[in-house]
């Protein structure tokens, strides 16, 4: 099947444009010059010969030795050629580009990968990334906590508690002086620790919860987890001992899917009741969930 004339002419035109607009592969290294010619050495020259020739030419064309502007430009070219040829990897890429000038895109990609690719120590990048992420994490948690506190302080419950505390401390007398606003502010600060217990889904951020710190102490965390697993296996699987209240609380919380913060805020009597039901046993958990559903329907 013959190719239509318009398409064939278009392809030929595109090929010519590419030929004139795309520079040769070697041009990206030493422009239009040959790196070996700039240093006055052959392509088979060894590293010592290249180095010796570079020092000789650099002394001759250095701006401090030769004030000629053209000599200064040549000095820059010589220095660039030496940077290309002194490194075995870039010299091998340059030699390949000389031998395969038709592989323009491949040679260009290798050049830019070598010169503009990632050369920073990965460990430094990891440390920097952890610091940045930890900073954002801390600011996000602090913002959420401050917003939660501000919301709690606008509730009637907070204002009632504030008035009750003020009434209790004043011995039943209320002050209408102008300085009373300052007293209210101090009372609000005194209540802040108690109010934190009523905030759900937000808490004061701590350094130990940041991703960066968790990454640093990861070996310790893993070792602690393995030790805990070994202790659990020995005590409860092999020896058949009864669960301690702490471990039973963990099993109960995990079975119910209760977050640690919510579990901590539960009344001790409520905790004891839930632990006593042995929720880690499937039948007990199903019975409890059924009971909760019935209670929810009854309240409706």
Short structural description:
The protein is mainly α and 300 residues long. Helix content is 72%, strand content 0%. The chain contains 16 helices and no strands.
Describe the protein's architecture and organization.
Helix 4 packs antiparallel against helix 5 (69-86), helix 6 packs antiparallel against helix 7 (104-116) and helix 9 (156-169) packs across helix 10 (180-195). With 300 residues, the chain is mainly α. It is elongated and about 95 Å long. It is built from 16 helices and no strands. The longest helix has 32 residues, at 122-153.
Map the helices and strands:
Blueprint: H1 5-21, H2 27-30, H3 35-39, H4 47-61, H5 69-86, H6 88-99, H7 104-116, H8 122-153, H9 156-169, H10 180-195, H11 211-216, H12 218-238, H13 245-256, H14 260-264, H15 268-276, H16 282-299
Large-scale geometry: elongated
Distance between the termini: 79 Å
Q: Report on the biggest sheet.
A: none
Average per-residue pLDDT, rounded, comes to 79
Number of helices: 16
- Helix content class: over 70%
How do the SSEs run, as a string of H and E? HHHHHHHHHHHHHHHH
Strand proportion: under 5%
Number of strands: 0
Radius of gyration: 38 Å
User: Would you tell me the structural class of the helices and strands?
Assistant: mainly alpha
pLDDT < 50 runs, ≥5 residues:
1-7, 11-23, 178-183
């Amino acid at each position: 099947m013959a190719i239509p004339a318009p398409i064939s002419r278009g392809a030929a035109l595109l090929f010519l444009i590419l030929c004139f607009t795309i520079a040769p592969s070697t041009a990206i290294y030493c422009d239009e010059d040959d790196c070996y010619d700039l240093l006055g050495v052959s392509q088979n020259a060894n590293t010592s010969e290249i180095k010796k020739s570079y020092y000789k030419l650099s002394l001759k064309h250095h701006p401090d030795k030769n004030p000629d502007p053209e000599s200064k430009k040549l000095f820059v070219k010589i220095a660039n050629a030496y940077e290309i040829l002194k490194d075995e990897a870039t010299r091998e890429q340059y030699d390949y580009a000389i031998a395969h000038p038709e592989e323009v895109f491949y040679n260009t990609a290798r050049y830019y990968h070598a010169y503009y690719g990632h050369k920073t120590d990965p460990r430094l990048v990891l440390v920097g990334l952890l610091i940045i992420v930890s900073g954002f994490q801390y600011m996000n948690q602090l913002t959420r906590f401050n917003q939660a506190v501000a919301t709690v302080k606008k509730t009637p419950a907070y204002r009632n508690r504030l008035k009750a505390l003020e009434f209790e401390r004043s011995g039943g007398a209320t002050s209408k002086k102008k300085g009373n606003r300052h007293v209210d502010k101090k009372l609000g600060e005194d209540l802040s620790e108690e109010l934190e217990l009523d905030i759900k889904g937000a808490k004061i951020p701590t350094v130990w919860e940041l991703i960066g710190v968790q990454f640093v102490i990861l070996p310790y965390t893993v070792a602690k987890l393995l030790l805990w697993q070994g202790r659990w296996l020995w005590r409860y699987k092999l020896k058949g001992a009864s669960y301690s209240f702490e471990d039973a609380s963990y099993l109960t919380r995990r079975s119910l899917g209760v977050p640690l913060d919510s579990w901590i805020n539960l009344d001790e009597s409520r905790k004891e009741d839930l632990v006593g039901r042995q929720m880690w046993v499937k039948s007990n958990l199903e019975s409890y969930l059924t009971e909760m559903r019935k209670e929810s329907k009854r309240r409706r």
